[in-house]
Amino acid sequence: MSTVSGEAADGGRTPQRGRPARYTREALLDLVVGVFNERGYEGASMEDLARASGLTKSTFYHHVSGKEELLRMAVGRALDALSAALDETMATHARPIDLLADAVRRTTEVLLDELPYVTLLLRVRGNTAVEREALARRRAIDARLAALVKVAAEAGEIRADIDPRLASRLLFGMVNSITEWYRPGARTASRTSIVDAVTGVALTGLRTPGAS
Amino acid sequence: MSTVSGEAADGGRTPQRGRPARYTREALLDLVVGVFNERGYEGASMEDLARASGLTKSTFYHHVSGKEELLRMAVGRALDALSAALDETMATHARPIDLLADAVRRTTEVLLDELPYVTLLLRVRGNTAVEREALARRRAIDARLAALVKVAAEAGEIRADIDPRLASRLLFGMVNSITEWYRPGARTASRTSIVDAVTGVALTGLRTPGAS
DNA sequence: GTCTATATGTTGATAGAC
DNA sequence: GTCTATCAACATATAGAC
After folding, report:
1. Beta partners for A5?
2. For chain A, which has fewer Cβ within 10 Å, the N-terminal or C-terminal residue?
3. pLDDT at res. B23
4. Per the CB < 8 Å rule, is B177 touching A176?
């Protein structure tokens, strides 16, 4: 169970006119999100999604309720992961600057581990109810992150010459921008080196320490 | 001339069934790009664009050749501005670290001054020929910026523990992320404070200098 | 320059045979 | 579970009257 095409209990007599196409719902969602990210949510048609899964459009509809529901599942997964990461950070009860660094690290890790889902989430515009709901949840997470920056600023642990809200936007804008280029498997930077680089640049900047 | 509805040389006898709608081509493009950014390029229909301009769909088509051509003009404007800013930076012949700081500053300024156009550019996916051409031009600009970072790294002026390509992506990812939230006129950070903050965070980081 | 009307294709979604 | 066939809605784009 939880597979898409069932167990062929009739002993193979079934015509199977298309490709076998036996996906778990998770594998199917992975595939769908891949197409969403390639062509954009609006630019991807149900026909595109069906073809990518090796099914006809009708068969595809037999398994999924519709395009919007697919989006809801996908962005929900991203939001849950980001939310959980932030919960874990808060549970450490560390000093403000360390809380912030931990949030940056964990958010970056979620982004790398759930890359297609977070990528899709970050591109949501707000045309439909599903999208607006996702934006609202995302704003709530951003607000929690901004609060972390604010606390660190009030503790004097980050520079006072930049507004905490602006600092938060730049910081997590940098983190989120990873979705623009990171492709796992490609010969780019490793997960660890990215996490270290983000945290490093965020806290101490690019310039060589001590250089003029 | 260069207006959209002409000079009404008949002395006002024209029926004018819709809204007056007298735009320069630039004002019309501004309006179009606004809708593109609100709904997404794929999500915005010609009907949407026409309605936003106060014209019927047909009248709108009388003035513009089609949706894709509107996109070409819009992203072309963004690409030209970014390219020109980078040319200006190179013409200063400064030290590597100062070249880099200047590129960050000028790129940020273009982003703020041409916000809707650059925002649209940064969201281009690559579904059509126009989009792929824009992506190619954008990649060329990114490569020039990455080269600046590399030179600064080789001169020992930025930290050696981060791969220059990764540093470049994080740095300009942070810069580009401004399009996600900046809204001129809203009571957010001013142009100057944003430019200063970006340059500051990029080079020296968020952490308070000298703090543990 | 603007309109109404329409041509033509594509989209999300369903009906019903096998 | 899979297919072919089809629908209603909406898309881009054009024709032609005023």
Report:
1. none
2. N
3. 82
4. yes
